[in-house]
Task: structure prediction
Amino acid sequence: MIVTFEEHSISYPSLDLSSGLLLITGASGTGKTTLLRVLHGAQEAQNKPDLEGVTALMPQHPQWIEYATMKEQLSMTAGDGFERDAVALGIGPLLHRFPHQLSIGQLQRFALVLAMNQGASTLLLDEPTSALDDDWAEKACELLDQWLSANPQGRIYAVTHDQRMKDRFNHVNTLAL
Result:
């Protein structure tokens, strides 16, 4: 697959389309986020792999509606399980708050809850644990394991620099760019 913008191109190796978790690693600027955007359909590419089903993208820097509570925002697109997952990630009591009232780590946990509850068969996660302390990063990884158990044909492509996530999922396939 080749992604071209202006006079610059990125050539990607073959992508593992099997179910389960794939960690995408590499130095900054190698095209990891671009790969997620292509897979989500937000950017064009030549020879793009065909991911069957719906994808959900968790961007590294999500945009929130400043005048809506987190519960209102999640209610717009997330399914019924979002409150359960919010509680599991310690943000259930914060559902009534507005984005500007939350820390970066709390917002990152909300973004993960949103991605996991959109009914997608493929999750595209950009640095899902980067702003989390050790305990919440471990809880987030546990929740990803639970999602995979509940969705045996599901796929998660997770871009990460986080050594905790690499260590936690050292048994899965890794795509190094």
Observations:
- The domain at 2-176 is CATH 3.40.50.300 (Rossmann fold).
- The beta strands are 2-5, 8-11, 20-25, 55-58, 122-126, 155-159, 173-176.
